[in-house]
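Subject: sequence -> C-alpha coordinates, single chain

Hey, anyone have a minute? Need the predicted structure for the following. Not urgent.
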Amino acid sequence: MQSGDGRRGLGGVARILHPASVAVIGASEQVEKIGGRPIQLLLHSGFKGEIIPINPSRSMIQGLKAYANIAAVAGRVDLAILAVPAEIVLATLEQCGEAAVKAAVIFSSGFAEVGEAGRAEQDALLACARRYGMRFAGPNSIGIVNFADGVMLTFASSLVGPPQDGPIAIVSQSGAFGIALYSQLRERGLGIRYVCATGNQADLCIADFLFEIAKDDSQRVVLVYIEHGPDPDRLRNGIETAVAAGKCVIAVPAGLSVHGRRTAALHTGGRVDQGISPEFLEGCGAIVAEDLEDIVEKTCSVISARIAIAPRPRLVLMSNSGASCVLAADAAAKFGLALADLSESSCARLAQVLPAFSLNRNPVDLTAMLRGAPQLVPAVLDIALGDAGADVLTFGLVAAGQGYDIDGYAAACVTAMAHYGKPILVYSPHHAIRARFEAAALTTFASERQTFGYVRLLSQLSYPARALAREPADGAE
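Reply:
Had a minute. Here:
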Protein backbone atom coordinates (compact mmCIF):
# COMPACT_ATOMS: atom_id res chain seq x y z
CA MET A 1 0.00 0.00 0.00
CA GLN A 2 1.25 3.45 -0.91
CA SER A 3 0.83 6.18 1.65
CA GLY A 4 2.32 9.33 3.09
CA ASP A 5 4.98 11.12 1.08
CA GLY A 6 4.62 8.85 -1.92
CA ARG A 7 1.16 10.23 -2.64
CA ARG A 8 1.57 13.91 -1.78
CA GLY A 9 1.77 14.89 -5.44
CA LEU A 10 -1.61 13.40 -6.36
CA GLY A 11 -4.43 15.82 -7.15
CA GLY A 12 -7.89 15.55 -5.67
CA VAL A 13 -9.48 13.59 -8.51
CA ALA A 14 -6.49 11.24 -8.76
CA ARG A 15 -6.76 10.46 -5.05
CA ILE A 16 -10.45 9.71 -5.48
CA LEU A 17 -10.03 7.52 -8.57
CA HIS A 18 -6.91 5.76 -7.25
CA PRO A 19 -7.00 5.70 -3.43
CA ALA A 20 -4.56 3.49 -1.52
CA SER A 21 -6.93 3.20 1.45
CA VAL A 22 -10.60 3.96 2.02
CA ALA A 23 -12.38 4.71 5.27
CA VAL A 24 -16.18 4.43 5.31
CA ILE A 25 -17.55 6.75 7.98
CA GLY A 26 -21.01 5.61 8.93
CA ALA A 27 -20.12 2.04 8.02
CA SER A 28 -22.83 -0.59 8.36
CA GLU A 29 -23.03 -4.36 8.57
CA GLN A 30 -26.16 -4.20 6.42
CA VAL A 31 -25.22 -4.07 2.77
CA GLU A 32 -28.52 -2.45 1.79
CA LYS A 33 -27.63 0.70 3.73
CA ILE A 34 -25.57 3.47 2.17
CA GLY A 35 -22.80 2.85 4.71
CA GLY A 36 -22.79 -0.89 4.01
CA ARG A 37 -22.97 -1.09 0.23
CA PRO A 38 -19.57 0.51 -0.52
CA ILE A 39 -17.82 -1.92 1.83
CA GLN A 40 -19.52 -4.86 0.12
CA LEU A 41 -18.57 -3.53 -3.30
CA LEU A 42 -14.95 -2.82 -2.34
CA LEU A 43 -14.58 -6.29 -0.83
CA HIS A 44 -15.79 -8.02 -3.98
CA SER A 45 -14.38 -5.77 -6.68
CA GLY A 46 -10.69 -6.59 -6.45
CA PHE A 47 -9.75 -3.38 -4.63
CA LYS A 48 -6.22 -3.93 -3.36
CA GLY A 49 -6.08 -1.13 -0.80
CA GLU A 50 -7.08 -1.10 2.84
CA ILE A 51 -10.78 -0.81 3.73
CA ILE A 52 -11.42 0.81 7.11
CA PRO A 53 -14.97 0.86 8.53
CA ILE A 54 -15.69 3.69 10.97
CA ASN A 55 -18.57 3.14 13.40
CA PRO A 56 -18.50 3.84 17.17
CA SER A 57 -20.99 1.06 17.87
CA ARG A 58 -19.24 -1.96 16.32
CA SER A 59 -15.82 -3.58 16.47
CA MET A 60 -16.25 -5.66 13.28
CA ILE A 61 -18.17 -4.83 10.13
CA GLN A 62 -18.50 -7.23 7.19
CA GLY A 63 -15.49 -9.16 8.50
CA LEU A 64 -13.27 -6.09 8.83
CA LYS A 65 -11.97 -4.46 12.00
CA ALA A 66 -13.96 -1.30 12.67
CA TYR A 67 -12.83 1.83 14.47
CA ALA A 68 -14.79 4.27 16.61
CA ASN A 69 -13.67 7.38 14.75
CA ILE A 70 -11.36 8.61 12.03
CA ALA A 71 -8.86 9.89 14.60
CA ALA A 72 -8.12 6.26 15.54
CA VAL A 73 -6.59 5.70 12.08
CA ALA A 74 -5.05 9.13 11.54
CA GLY A 75 -2.41 9.08 8.83
CA ARG A 76 -3.61 5.75 7.39
CA VAL A 77 -6.54 7.00 5.31
CA ASP A 78 -6.17 8.22 1.74
CA LEU A 79 -9.87 8.81 1.15
CA ALA A 80 -12.97 8.91 3.34
CA ILE A 81 -16.54 8.17 2.33
CA LEU A 82 -19.01 10.20 4.39
CA ALA A 83 -22.24 8.23 4.74
CA VAL A 84 -23.61 10.23 7.66
CA PRO A 85 -26.61 12.55 8.24
CA ALA A 86 -26.29 16.04 6.76
CA GLU A 87 -26.23 17.71 10.18
CA ILE A 88 -22.93 16.07 11.14
CA VAL A 89 -21.17 16.17 7.76
CA LEU A 90 -19.27 19.38 8.56
CA ALA A 91 -18.00 18.08 11.89
CA THR A 92 -17.06 14.77 10.27
CA LEU A 93 -15.18 16.52 7.48
CA GLU A 94 -13.32 18.57 10.09
CA GLN A 95 -12.29 15.36 11.82
CA CYS A 96 -11.07 13.96 8.51
CA GLY A 97 -8.93 17.05 8.01
CA GLU A 98 -7.42 16.68 11.46
CA ALA A 99 -6.67 13.01 10.67
CA ALA A 100 -4.72 14.03 7.51
CA VAL A 101 -7.31 12.64 5.10
CA LYS A 102 -6.77 14.35 1.75
CA ALA A 103 -9.87 13.33 -0.23
CA ALA A 104 -13.51 12.54 0.46
CA VAL A 105 -16.73 11.48 -1.24
CA ILE A 106 -19.83 12.89 0.46
CA PHE A 107 -23.01 10.88 -0.08
CA SER A 108 -25.17 13.03 2.21
CA SER A 109 -27.92 15.24 0.77
CA GLY A 110 -29.54 18.31 2.29
CA PHE A 111 -27.26 21.13 1.22
CA ALA A 112 -27.54 23.74 -1.56
CA GLU A 113 -30.37 21.80 -3.18
CA VAL A 114 -32.67 22.54 -0.20
CA GLY A 115 -32.22 26.31 -0.05
CA GLU A 116 -29.99 29.10 1.18
CA ALA A 117 -29.42 27.62 4.63
CA GLY A 118 -28.23 24.44 3.01
CA ARG A 119 -26.07 26.43 0.60
CA ALA A 120 -24.39 28.17 3.56
CA GLU A 121 -23.68 24.77 5.11
CA GLN A 122 -22.27 23.59 1.79
CA ASP A 123 -20.02 26.65 1.61
CA ALA A 124 -18.78 25.78 5.09
CA LEU A 125 -17.79 22.32 3.83
CA LEU A 126 -15.66 23.90 1.13
CA ALA A 127 -14.03 26.30 3.58
CA CYS A 128 -13.22 23.40 5.90
CA ALA A 129 -11.70 21.37 3.08
CA ARG A 130 -9.59 24.31 1.98
CA ARG A 131 -8.15 24.75 5.49
CA TYR A 132 -6.84 21.21 5.44
CA GLY A 133 -5.84 20.96 1.78
CA MET A 134 -8.55 18.38 1.23
CA ARG A 135 -10.64 17.82 -1.94
CA PHE A 136 -14.06 16.20 -2.10
CA ALA A 137 -16.78 15.06 -4.47
CA GLY A 138 -20.36 15.92 -3.58
CA PRO A 139 -22.26 16.45 -1.43
CA ASN A 140 -25.41 14.78 -2.74
CA SER A 141 -23.33 12.28 -4.73
CA ILE A 142 -24.16 8.65 -5.38
CA GLY A 143 -20.41 8.06 -5.55
CA ILE A 144 -17.39 7.45 -7.73
CA VAL A 145 -16.28 4.23 -9.44
CA ASN A 146 -13.07 3.13 -11.16
CA PHE A 147 -13.71 -0.41 -12.35
CA ALA A 148 -10.13 -0.95 -13.50
CA ASP A 149 -8.83 -0.78 -9.93
CA GLY A 150 -11.92 -2.02 -8.12
CA VAL A 151 -12.50 1.42 -6.60
CA MET A 152 -16.21 1.28 -5.70
CA LEU A 153 -16.93 4.41 -3.70
CA THR A 154 -20.69 4.20 -4.14
CA PHE A 155 -23.91 2.88 -2.65
CA ALA A 156 -25.50 2.17 -6.06
CA SER A 157 -27.04 -1.28 -5.85
CA SER A 158 -27.23 -1.65 -9.63
CA LEU A 159 -23.43 -1.91 -9.76
CA VAL A 160 -23.46 -5.22 -7.89
CA GLY A 161 -22.27 -7.91 -10.29
CA PRO A 162 -19.35 -8.44 -12.67
CA PRO A 163 -18.17 -5.20 -14.30
CA GLN A 164 -16.44 -4.85 -17.65
CA ASP A 165 -13.62 -2.37 -17.98
CA GLY A 166 -13.66 -0.41 -21.20
CA PRO A 167 -12.92 2.81 -23.10
CA ILE A 168 -15.85 4.84 -21.76
CA ALA A 169 -16.06 7.24 -18.82
CA ILE A 170 -19.25 8.71 -17.38
CA VAL A 171 -19.20 12.02 -15.50
CA SER A 172 -22.65 13.02 -14.35
CA GLN A 173 -24.09 15.45 -11.86
CA SER A 174 -27.00 13.08 -11.47
CA GLY A 175 -26.25 9.71 -9.94
CA ALA A 176 -29.41 8.14 -11.33
CA PHE A 177 -28.69 9.36 -14.85
CA GLY A 178 -25.10 8.14 -14.64
CA ILE A 179 -26.11 4.70 -13.37
CA ALA A 180 -28.89 4.40 -15.95
CA LEU A 181 -26.41 5.32 -18.69
CA TYR A 182 -23.96 2.74 -17.34
CA SER A 183 -26.67 0.05 -17.33
CA GLN A 184 -27.81 0.87 -20.88
CA LEU A 185 -24.28 0.67 -22.25
CA ARG A 186 -23.53 -2.57 -20.42
CA GLU A 187 -26.70 -4.09 -21.88
CA ARG A 188 -25.18 -3.34 -25.27
CA GLY A 189 -21.96 -5.10 -24.34
CA LEU A 190 -19.84 -1.98 -23.89
CA GLY A 191 -17.25 -1.67 -21.13
CA ILE A 192 -16.98 1.34 -18.85
CA ARG A 193 -14.02 2.32 -16.67
CA TYR A 194 -15.26 5.33 -14.71
CA VAL A 195 -18.63 6.38 -13.34
CA CYS A 196 -18.31 9.70 -11.51
CA ALA A 197 -21.31 11.39 -9.92
CA THR A 198 -20.36 14.93 -8.99
CA GLY A 199 -23.63 15.84 -7.27
CA ASN A 200 -23.74 19.44 -6.06
CA GLN A 201 -20.14 20.11 -7.19
CA ALA A 202 -19.33 22.12 -4.07
CA ASP A 203 -15.63 21.41 -4.66
CA LEU A 204 -14.62 19.03 -7.45
CA CYS A 205 -16.69 19.55 -10.57
CA ILE A 206 -17.19 17.92 -13.94
CA ALA A 207 -14.20 19.83 -15.36
CA ASP A 208 -11.86 18.38 -12.71
CA PHE A 209 -12.80 14.85 -13.70
CA LEU A 210 -12.39 15.70 -17.38
CA PHE A 211 -8.84 16.91 -16.74
CA GLU A 212 -7.95 13.64 -14.99
CA ILE A 213 -9.66 11.31 -17.45
CA ALA A 214 -7.90 13.10 -20.31
CA LYS A 215 -4.66 11.61 -18.98
CA ASP A 216 -5.94 8.03 -19.35
CA ASP A 217 -4.93 6.81 -22.81
CA SER A 218 -7.37 3.88 -22.61
CA GLN A 219 -10.38 6.19 -22.65
CA ARG A 220 -11.98 7.03 -25.99
CA VAL A 221 -15.34 8.50 -24.99
CA VAL A 222 -16.36 10.70 -22.05
CA LEU A 223 -20.08 11.05 -21.41
CA VAL A 224 -21.33 14.05 -19.46
CA TYR A 225 -24.65 14.98 -17.87
CA ILE A 226 -24.64 18.57 -16.64
CA GLU A 227 -27.25 20.76 -14.97
CA HIS A 228 -25.15 23.75 -14.03
CA GLY A 229 -21.63 25.05 -14.47
CA PRO A 230 -20.50 27.51 -11.81
CA ASP A 231 -17.21 28.09 -13.67
CA PRO A 232 -17.83 28.04 -17.44
CA ASP A 233 -14.22 28.87 -18.28
CA ARG A 234 -12.97 25.87 -16.33
CA LEU A 235 -15.60 23.66 -17.93
CA ARG A 236 -14.49 24.88 -21.36
CA ASN A 237 -10.88 24.09 -20.50
CA GLY A 238 -11.83 20.65 -19.24
CA ILE A 239 -13.73 19.74 -22.40
CA GLU A 240 -11.04 21.17 -24.67
CA THR A 241 -8.34 19.28 -22.77
CA ALA A 242 -10.21 16.01 -23.16
CA VAL A 243 -10.88 16.63 -26.86
CA ALA A 244 -7.24 17.58 -27.45
CA ALA A 245 -6.25 14.30 -25.79
CA GLY A 246 -8.28 12.42 -28.40
CA LYS A 247 -11.42 11.81 -26.37
CA CYS A 248 -14.88 12.18 -27.82
CA VAL A 249 -16.92 14.18 -25.30
CA ILE A 250 -20.69 13.70 -25.61
CA ALA A 251 -22.78 15.83 -23.27
CA VAL A 252 -26.42 16.11 -22.25
CA PRO A 253 -27.15 19.64 -20.99
CA ALA A 254 -30.23 19.74 -18.76
CA GLY A 255 -32.23 22.57 -17.25
CA LEU A 256 -32.72 24.46 -20.50
CA SER A 257 -36.25 25.69 -19.80
CA VAL A 258 -37.59 27.88 -17.02
CA HIS A 259 -39.07 24.95 -15.14
CA GLY A 260 -36.08 22.79 -15.98
CA ARG A 261 -33.71 25.31 -14.41
CA ARG A 262 -35.90 25.60 -11.34
CA THR A 263 -36.02 21.81 -11.00
CA ALA A 264 -32.27 21.48 -11.52
CA ALA A 265 -31.66 23.97 -8.70
CA LEU A 266 -33.73 21.74 -6.41
CA HIS A 267 -31.85 18.67 -7.62
CA THR A 268 -28.15 19.55 -7.57
CA GLY A 269 -28.17 22.97 -5.96
CA GLY A 270 -27.06 25.10 -8.87
CA ARG A 271 -28.22 28.67 -9.32
CA VAL A 272 -30.71 29.35 -12.10
CA ASP A 273 -28.18 31.55 -13.91
CA GLN A 274 -25.55 28.79 -14.09
CA GLY A 275 -27.13 26.72 -16.85
CA ILE A 276 -24.99 25.40 -19.69
CA SER A 277 -26.35 25.71 -23.23
CA PRO A 278 -25.92 23.25 -26.10
CA GLU A 279 -24.21 26.02 -28.10
CA PHE A 280 -21.63 26.52 -25.35
CA LEU A 281 -20.83 22.80 -25.24
CA GLU A 282 -20.52 22.54 -29.02
CA GLY A 283 -18.26 25.57 -29.02
CA CYS A 284 -15.97 23.77 -26.57
CA GLY A 285 -15.70 20.71 -28.81
CA ALA A 286 -18.35 18.48 -27.24
CA ILE A 287 -21.05 16.62 -29.13
CA VAL A 288 -24.49 17.40 -27.72
CA ALA A 289 -27.09 14.72 -27.01
CA GLU A 290 -30.69 15.42 -26.07
CA ASP A 291 -31.42 12.71 -23.53
CA LEU A 292 -30.47 9.25 -22.24
CA GLU A 293 -31.56 7.44 -25.39
CA ASP A 294 -29.70 9.88 -27.62
CA ILE A 295 -26.42 9.73 -25.70
CA VAL A 296 -26.54 5.92 -25.66
CA GLU A 297 -27.09 5.77 -29.42
CA LYS A 298 -24.36 8.31 -30.13
CA THR A 299 -21.93 6.42 -27.89
CA CYS A 300 -22.64 3.13 -29.64
CA SER A 301 -22.13 4.81 -33.00
CA VAL A 302 -18.76 6.27 -31.99
CA ILE A 303 -17.48 3.04 -30.46
CA SER A 304 -18.55 0.89 -33.40
CA ALA A 305 -17.48 3.29 -36.16
CA ARG A 306 -15.55 1.58 -38.95
CA ILE A 307 -15.10 4.68 -41.07
CA ALA A 308 -13.74 8.19 -40.60
CA ILE A 309 -15.45 11.29 -41.94
CA ALA A 310 -13.63 14.56 -42.46
CA PRO A 311 -14.80 17.83 -40.91
CA ARG A 312 -17.41 19.69 -42.96
CA PRO A 313 -17.87 16.83 -45.42
CA ARG A 314 -19.33 17.46 -48.86
CA LEU A 315 -21.88 14.79 -49.67
CA VAL A 316 -23.13 13.07 -52.79
CA LEU A 317 -26.60 11.58 -52.30
CA MET A 318 -27.52 8.63 -54.50
CA SER A 319 -30.73 6.59 -54.47
CA ASN A 320 -33.02 4.61 -56.69
CA SER A 321 -35.99 6.54 -55.28
CA GLY A 322 -36.85 10.13 -56.15
CA ALA A 323 -38.66 10.49 -52.84
CA SER A 324 -35.60 9.31 -50.97
CA CYS A 325 -33.51 11.86 -52.85
CA VAL A 326 -35.82 14.59 -51.60
CA LEU A 327 -35.85 13.25 -48.03
CA ALA A 328 -32.07 12.81 -48.08
CA ALA A 329 -31.56 16.42 -49.16
CA ASP A 330 -33.86 17.57 -46.36
CA ALA A 331 -32.08 15.37 -43.80
CA ALA A 332 -28.67 16.63 -44.86
CA ALA A 333 -29.85 20.21 -44.42
CA LYS A 334 -31.38 19.40 -41.04
CA PHE A 335 -28.00 18.17 -39.79
CA GLY A 336 -26.10 21.09 -41.29
CA LEU A 337 -24.38 18.99 -43.95
CA ALA A 338 -23.40 20.42 -47.33
CA LEU A 339 -23.98 18.72 -50.66
CA ALA A 340 -21.04 18.45 -53.02
CA ASP A 341 -21.04 20.80 -55.99
CA LEU A 342 -19.97 18.36 -58.67
CA SER A 343 -17.77 19.65 -61.46
CA GLU A 344 -19.05 20.29 -64.98
CA SER A 345 -17.04 17.33 -66.17
CA SER A 346 -18.63 15.02 -63.56
CA CYS A 347 -22.11 16.28 -64.42
CA ALA A 348 -21.47 15.67 -68.11
CA ARG A 349 -20.33 12.14 -67.41
CA LEU A 350 -23.40 11.51 -65.25
CA ALA A 351 -25.62 12.68 -68.11
CA GLN A 352 -24.06 9.97 -70.28
CA VAL A 353 -24.84 7.12 -67.89
CA LEU A 354 -28.12 8.15 -66.20
CA PRO A 355 -31.57 7.84 -67.77
CA ALA A 356 -32.53 10.93 -69.75
CA PHE A 357 -35.35 11.73 -67.28
CA SER A 358 -32.95 11.79 -64.30
CA LEU A 359 -31.88 15.42 -64.40
CA ASN A 360 -30.66 16.19 -60.89
CA ARG A 361 -26.90 15.96 -60.39
CA ASN A 362 -26.91 15.90 -56.59
CA PRO A 363 -28.89 14.15 -55.29
CA VAL A 364 -28.44 11.58 -58.03
CA ASP A 365 -31.61 9.63 -58.81
CA LEU A 366 -30.82 6.24 -60.31
CA THR A 367 -34.57 5.78 -60.86
CA ALA A 368 -36.32 2.45 -61.24
CA MET A 369 -34.08 1.81 -64.25
CA LEU A 370 -31.52 0.47 -61.77
CA ARG A 371 -33.32 -2.85 -61.75
CA GLY A 372 -32.38 -3.55 -65.34
CA ALA A 373 -29.14 -1.59 -65.37
CA PRO A 374 -26.94 -2.73 -62.45
CA GLN A 375 -23.96 -1.03 -64.10
CA LEU A 376 -25.40 2.31 -62.97
CA VAL A 377 -24.09 1.80 -59.43
CA PRO A 378 -20.37 1.33 -60.20
CA ALA A 379 -20.56 3.99 -62.92
CA VAL A 380 -22.05 6.66 -60.65
CA LEU A 381 -19.77 5.69 -57.78
CA ASP A 382 -16.74 6.13 -60.02
CA ILE A 383 -17.86 9.55 -61.23
CA ALA A 384 -19.04 10.89 -57.87
CA LEU A 385 -16.20 9.67 -55.68
CA GLY A 386 -13.67 10.61 -58.33
CA ASP A 387 -14.82 14.22 -58.11
CA ALA A 388 -12.44 16.33 -56.03
CA GLY A 389 -15.40 18.19 -54.52
CA ALA A 390 -16.95 15.08 -52.95
CA ASP A 391 -15.97 13.58 -49.59
CA VAL A 392 -18.76 11.12 -48.72
CA LEU A 393 -21.43 9.24 -50.65
CA THR A 394 -24.72 7.91 -49.33
CA PHE A 395 -26.60 5.21 -51.19
CA GLY A 396 -30.31 4.78 -50.51
CA LEU A 397 -31.83 1.55 -51.76
CA VAL A 398 -35.49 2.02 -50.96
CA ALA A 399 -37.38 0.12 -53.64
CA ALA A 400 -35.85 -3.31 -54.13
CA GLY A 401 -36.90 -6.84 -54.91
CA GLN A 402 -36.43 -9.52 -57.48
CA GLY A 403 -34.05 -8.45 -60.22
CA TYR A 404 -31.94 -6.12 -58.09
CA ASP A 405 -28.29 -7.17 -57.89
CA ILE A 406 -27.79 -6.38 -54.19
CA ASP A 407 -24.54 -8.31 -53.85
CA GLY A 408 -23.21 -6.65 -57.00
CA TYR A 409 -24.04 -3.21 -55.61
CA ALA A 410 -22.30 -4.07 -52.36
CA ALA A 411 -19.21 -5.29 -54.21
CA ALA A 412 -19.14 -2.07 -56.24
CA CYS A 413 -19.28 -0.02 -53.04
CA VAL A 414 -16.41 -1.95 -51.51
CA THR A 415 -14.30 -1.52 -54.65
CA ALA A 416 -15.02 2.21 -54.89
CA MET A 417 -14.24 2.83 -51.21
CA ALA A 418 -10.94 1.00 -51.54
CA HIS A 419 -10.00 2.84 -54.72
CA TYR A 420 -10.95 6.40 -53.72
CA GLY A 421 -10.49 6.20 -49.96
CA LYS A 422 -13.85 7.91 -49.37
CA PRO A 423 -16.63 6.48 -47.20
CA ILE A 424 -19.94 5.15 -48.50
CA LEU A 425 -22.93 4.75 -46.22
CA VAL A 426 -25.93 2.69 -47.25
CA TYR A 427 -29.51 3.01 -46.05
CA SER A 428 -32.54 0.89 -46.74
CA PRO A 429 -35.76 0.22 -44.83
CA HIS A 430 -35.39 -3.47 -45.67
CA HIS A 431 -33.51 -5.51 -43.08
CA ALA A 432 -32.60 -8.26 -45.57
CA ILE A 433 -30.97 -5.72 -47.89
CA ARG A 434 -29.03 -4.09 -45.07
CA ALA A 435 -27.79 -7.51 -44.00
CA ARG A 436 -26.32 -8.15 -47.47
CA PHE A 437 -24.41 -4.86 -47.40
CA GLU A 438 -23.31 -5.47 -43.81
CA ALA A 439 -21.94 -8.84 -44.88
CA ALA A 440 -19.60 -6.86 -47.13
CA ALA A 441 -18.47 -4.81 -44.09
CA LEU A 442 -20.39 -1.70 -45.18
CA THR A 443 -22.05 0.65 -42.71
CA THR A 444 -25.84 0.62 -43.05
CA PHE A 445 -28.89 2.39 -41.65
CA ALA A 446 -32.65 2.10 -41.89
CA SER A 447 -33.45 5.70 -42.85
CA GLU A 448 -32.18 8.99 -44.18
CA ARG A 449 -32.40 10.55 -40.70
CA GLN A 450 -30.20 7.86 -39.15
CA THR A 451 -27.70 8.08 -41.98
CA PHE A 452 -27.15 11.82 -41.90
CA GLY A 453 -27.22 11.98 -38.12
CA TYR A 454 -24.36 9.49 -38.18
CA VAL A 455 -22.44 11.50 -40.79
CA ARG A 456 -22.84 14.62 -38.66
CA LEU A 457 -21.70 12.75 -35.54
CA LEU A 458 -18.56 11.26 -37.10
CA SER A 459 -17.65 14.53 -38.79
CA GLN A 460 -17.71 16.20 -35.37
CA LEU A 461 -15.08 13.75 -34.12
CA SER A 462 -12.61 15.34 -36.52
CA TYR A 463 -13.08 18.88 -35.24
CA PRO A 464 -10.41 20.51 -33.11
CA ALA A 465 -11.61 22.23 -29.96
CA ARG A 466 -13.64 25.40 -30.56
CA ALA A 467 -14.37 24.42 -34.17
CA LEU A 468 -17.81 22.88 -33.70
CA ALA A 469 -19.70 26.16 -33.88
CA ARG A 470 -20.39 26.18 -37.57
CA GLU A 471 -22.47 28.14 -40.03
CA PRO A 472 -25.41 26.21 -41.51
CA ALA A 473 -24.66 24.52 -44.79
CA ASP A 474 -26.19 25.98 -47.91
CA GLY A 475 -29.86 25.15 -47.89
CA ALA A 476 -29.92 24.37 -44.17
CA GLU A 477 -32.40 26.23 -42.01
